[in-house]
Amino acid sequence: MHHQTIIEIDHFSCTLNRKEILKDIFLTIREGEYLSIVGPNGSGKTTLLKCLVRILRGSGGRITIAGKEIESFRQRDLACLISYVPQADGRSSPFTVDEFLMMARYPYLSPFSSARKSDEKAVQAALDTTGTSHLANRLLATLSGGERQKVFIAAALAQDTKVMLLDEPTTFLDPKHDTDVRALLSRINRIHGVTIVSVTHDINAAALAGGRIVALKKGALVFNGGPGEFMEQGVLRTIYGTEFCIVNHPATGGRLVVPGVLQ
Fold this sequence. Notes:
By secondary structure, the chain is an alpha/beta fold.
């Protein structure tokens, strides 16, 4: 396990339309970590991911990636370090899976060159890892939600970055695809050593991922710790403003939340 810092967020703020969305965030992410970001709607989770790939700019403090200030990167060089899987929004592109994955290789291609052997190998390896080889010639528009989500993760893998950011990777997925995608991300983290930063609404998914959990609330970081500390009534109440019914997982003994009984 590497323990080198890959991302350092130092007293970072982000203001959009004169509203402060992120307030004085301080967070260090180490190489090889699996980090889940949780919190209520509108707490700034997606904004934080977008700032890490410079889709949005900060208004105070700084972000350092692999020891270098984010503002000093060329976009292409940043894309060699960090890939981003945005929230599924039902939009689809007019490309086959193969073409879509090849586009993820753009940081490594010179403007007029065609794909090299190394690009084709990276694409094939990403298809193999995600179990999507059989979809290579299909149009993205013809895929199910679960298949498309795996293809988006495959594209991030083909981009061959040290860090993968994911925004709600399993929302809208049925139980089988939800389990598949969570197992896939765990494998990418364990076997490939990729640092995973995953925004999720699913409190149980965050706890089961087994890594560190950070929580945002109204743009501020209000929790940073392990699943054991996170799954406490007092902690969850502070973050979400509601009571939870907490039980032990029958197999692992770890704590999970279940729906409470409605009066």
